[in-house]
Automatic annotation (TrEMBL):
CDD domains: CYP164-like (cd20625). InterPro entries: Cyt_P450, Cyt_P450_B, Cyt_P450_CS, Cyt_P450_sf. It comes from the Bacteria. This is Cytochrome P450. One of its GO terms (biological process) is cholesterol catabolic process.
């Protein structure tokens, strides 16, 4: 009986979380439903290719009702919903038969969209986790890493033969953040490849509507990542190092630290999010600067604009497309009634292209005065813990790349990742130096 359950449970999980939603969304898309069209336009469609859809969603009103959730691409409403106490992160578990079935089929390993992940916990637990983590991951601690990040960026570029075509995602955009976060969290150099591979394989776990094959690969990666993380944390407990994760293991509030489960969930999220989203920021930023040479020239004339340029990259092509919040009781958003238990899909990328806040939102402008008002790091109590680290890595990584190789040219063959929530390049082929003359 146990063996039958072991086989049946993943099938049920896939059906509830992916198979049935996937079918329903595709049918709704054929009827023109905006939310379903957003789903089907995801995957390999670049974010900049979806701006017409964002405009259409916004034209329906500050909040509109989709086939399955409420939608908003309004900057003001997205920020409001993310900050309100009558909305919680995550999806309210189903009641009755479907809820019992979901609980029966639940996984034994950690999932980023299941408690005690910081993504889906709420006060008081979320407050306690976040306070302990922020004691360790301070802005000062991140700035202290700037010099080491510059060294890593240059070391990585030193290993690349600039005369040959190169995939920048594989050799640079992916390697820089995984090396930085691995050093922060005390991951030995020989295990960084494992972390990068497992993190990339698990990244579609935030998506809905995965195929059966994708689902099985994601669950396998999550289970392997959880097992690796448990072993890594045990080693740090026995032999703490001079790294931020060792400090998190030892962190206490009123004499109480994180439990083993909470520590694994928090460390796993920090580790995965610490490089997965930054890979996208670096790749998206490289493409934008390459395709807008006049803006790159502005940065060369005034390097003090680099921090603002990173925020403009985050605004126009964010690493994360959207998130969601569930109403805890009957309420209203922008005058629209939202019943308890209803999900509001907050489209971060759409909010970043709201012309009410960003004039000419499709124009990439490294001097944009309010670029930092983007919502790419979310807002409210779930504002991204790694925002300062991502900004610093984006600035150092992109500036170093274009300073070292001002004639960098992208070449055909770029592909986008087949994920709907996380947005970035799978491959970004380039030549770092011009073609040799013959």
């Amino acid at each position: 009986m146990t063996r039958v359950a072991d086989v049946a449970k993943p099938v049920v999980r896939w059906g509830l979380n992916h198979g049935m939603p996937r079918t329903a969304l595709r049918l709704a898309a054929r009827r023109g439903d905006l939310q379903a069209r957003l789903f089907t336009a995801g995957g390999t469609t670049p974010t900049l290719g979806m701006t017409d859809l964002f405009d259409e969603i916004r034209a329906r009103g500050a909040v509109s009702k989709g086939a399955f959730t409420y939608l908003t691409a309004s900057h003001a409403v997205v920020r409001e919903v993310l900050g309100r106490n009558d909305f919680r992160s995550g999806i309210t578990p189903a009641a009755g038969f479907w809820g019992r079935l979901a609980r029966w089929s639940s996984v034994a390993f950690l999932h980023p969209m299941a408690p005690p992940s910081l993504l889906v916990t709420e006060p008081p637990d979320h407050t306690r986790y976040r306070r302990l983590v922020t004691r360790v991951f301070t802005v000062r601690a991140v700035e202290n890493l700037r010099g080491r990040t510059e060294e890593i960026a240059n070391e990585l570029l030193d290993t690349i033969d600039p005369t040959d075509p190169v995939d920048l995602v594989e050799t640079y955009c992916g390697q820089l953040p995984v090396t930085v976060i691995a050093e922060i969290l005390g991951v030995p150099p020989e295990q960084r490849g494992t972390v990068s591979t497992l993190g990339s394989a698990a990244s579609p776990s935030l998506d809905m509507g995965l195929s059966w094959g994708q689902f099985r690969r994601v669950e396998s990666a999550l289970a392997a990542f959880d097992a690796w993380l448990a072993e890594h944390l045990e080693k740090l407990k026995a032999n703490p190092g001079d790294n931020l994760l060792s400090r998190l293991v030892a962190a206490r509030e009123d004499g109480v630290g994180l439990t083993d489960l909470e520590l694994r969930a928090t460390a796993g999220l920090v580790l995965a999010a610490g490089f997965e989203t930054t890979v996208n920021l670096l790749g998206n930023g490289t493409a934008l600067l390459h395709d807008n040479p006049a803006e790159l020239a502005v940065l060369r004339e005034d390097p003090a604009l680099w921090p603002n340029a990173v925020d403009e990259i985050l605004r126009i092509d964010p690493p994360v497309m959207l998130t969601g919040r569930t109403a805890t009781h009957n309420t209203e958003v922008a005058g629209v009634p939202v019943p308890a238990g209803a999900l509001v899909t907050t489209i971060l990328a759409g909010a970043n292209h709201d012309p009410a806040v960003f004039p000419e939102p499709r124009r990439f402008d490294v001097r944009r005065p309010n670029a930092r008002e983007h919502i790419s790091f979310s807002a409210g109590r779930h504002y991204c813990l790694g925002a300062a680290l991502a900004r610093m890595e984006g600035e150092v990584g992109l500036r170093t790349l274009f300073d070292r190789y001002p004639n960098l040219r992208l070449i055909p063959g770029a592909t986008h990742r087949n994920t709907r929530i996380l947005r970035g390049f799978e491959r970004l082929p380039a030549r770092l130096t011009p073609w040799p003359m013959h």
